[in-house]
Known about the structure:
Layout: E1 15-19, H1 22-25, H2 36-43, E2 48-54, E3 60-62, E4 67-71, H3 72-75, H4 86-97, E5 101-105, E6 122-126, E7 129-134, H5 143-155, E8 170-174, E9 185-190
Parallel strand pairs: 1-2, 4-5
Antiparallel strand pairs: 3-4, 6-7, 7-9, 8-9
Amino acid sequence: MRQAEAPNAPRDRMAVRFGFNAWGNKYESLLKDIGVIAQLGAAVAAPLQTVDMILEGGSIDVDGQGTLLTTKQCLLNENRNPDMDQAAIETNLKAYLGVQKILWLGDGIEGDDTDGHVDDITRFVAPGVVATCVEEDKAHPNFTPLDENAWVLRNTPTRTAAPCGSWSCRCRKTSWPTKAAHCRRATAISSSPTARC
């Protein structure tokens, strides 16, 4: 289990260099992107902390209130972090990104070369509110994974969950275009007791 040691003292600003392997070693020409974070750290005059864990920006989403969304398909994939279990990954996410609660969705959509980046299927639109893709055609290969993800969202409280304690308090379906080509409908799921269906 690879688990980085968290910084000893709190800092106002810190640049964090997670590992990058071009989406599971799929795009060798993009491996040079790993050098960008060192330039960024220098530009913002922040100390640079290196974490021995693969993490791409699209594999996580945060609500700004201490809750992070990700998928097991991506972060627990053998082509990302084969020597780490879920607990070790959570330790690093909490230590280096300052989150307290991690919501693990399952799989992304069929044919996604990112291996389930959460930004293809589910995003925070406000603290305690996400927009997530759903598939209504039960015969479609995306139906089951997206349905399972929606169940997780509806039944898992965020770090700052409203008194009702879960995402399932109110739900509103809205059709709008999404990034995912095979996603026909998105659902807004809120933990707010004041939201209306």
